[in-house]
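Sequence design from tokenized structure. All designs in this work follow the same two-part layout: the structure record, then the generated sequence. An example of the structure record is given first.
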């Protein structure tokens, strides 16, 4: 390395040292702020990860209860999961499983209330679509066919997969037909033929 380059680098280092000597308080403040900011970011990231891990464990426990045939324990675990760990993927899965358990347990009114709250909370698209689809099934169980058809259409609008969009529209058409609204039923079936012809 040429001598002039070494001299220039040495000058820069000396200037930096001199600046730090003159602005010691400012330098210490900047370093402290950066350290606190870094620690805060680390804390937030690690807290989110811990929350997601606890939620995943809670979901596994609820699924084990379902597999063991203990629906009441599973429902209790899922209610606690969705309220304690909301916003995690496990809580979204738990809300869908809770809706399924409510329907299979003959509690469509609870399913309707919880699924409406879930879909209104704007979870990611695939969870929201599954929520709308289950909401449609719950409304059908209650005999509210026109409302069920609308929920199925909302599912079709949100599902990211073509075959599930077509299935939701097929369910919407069936519900509209059961509600006596043949025009809306035909519109749902035509949408299937037009948008999902392949």
């Amino acid at each position: 390395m040429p001598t002039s380059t070494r001299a220039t680098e040495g000058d820069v280092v000396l200037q930096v040292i001199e600046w730090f000597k003159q602005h010691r308080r400012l330098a210490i403040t900047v370093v402290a702020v950066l350290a606190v900011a870094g620690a805060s970011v680390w804390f937030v990231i690690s807290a989110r990860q811990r929350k997601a891990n606890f939620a995943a464990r809670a979901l596994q426990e609820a699924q084990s209860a379902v597999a063991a045939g203990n629906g009441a324990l599973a429902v209790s675990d899922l209610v606690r999961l969705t309220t304690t760990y909301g916003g995690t993927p496990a809580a979204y899965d738990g809300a869908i499983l809770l809706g399924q358990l409510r329907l299979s347990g003959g509690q469509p009114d609870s399913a309707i209330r919880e699924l409406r709250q879930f879909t209104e909370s704007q979870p990611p698209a695939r969870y929201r679509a599954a929520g709308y689809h289950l909401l449609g099934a719950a409304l059908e169980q209650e005999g509210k066919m026109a409302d069920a058809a609308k929920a199925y259409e909302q599912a079709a609008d949100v599902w990211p997969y073509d075959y599930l969009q077509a299935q939701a529209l097929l369910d919407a058409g069936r519900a509209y037909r059961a509600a006596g609204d043949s025009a809306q039923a035909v519109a749902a079936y035509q949408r299937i033929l037009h948008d999902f012809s392949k």
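Residues 13 and 19 are 10 Å apart (CA to CA). We note this feature because it recurs in several other targets discussed in the main text.
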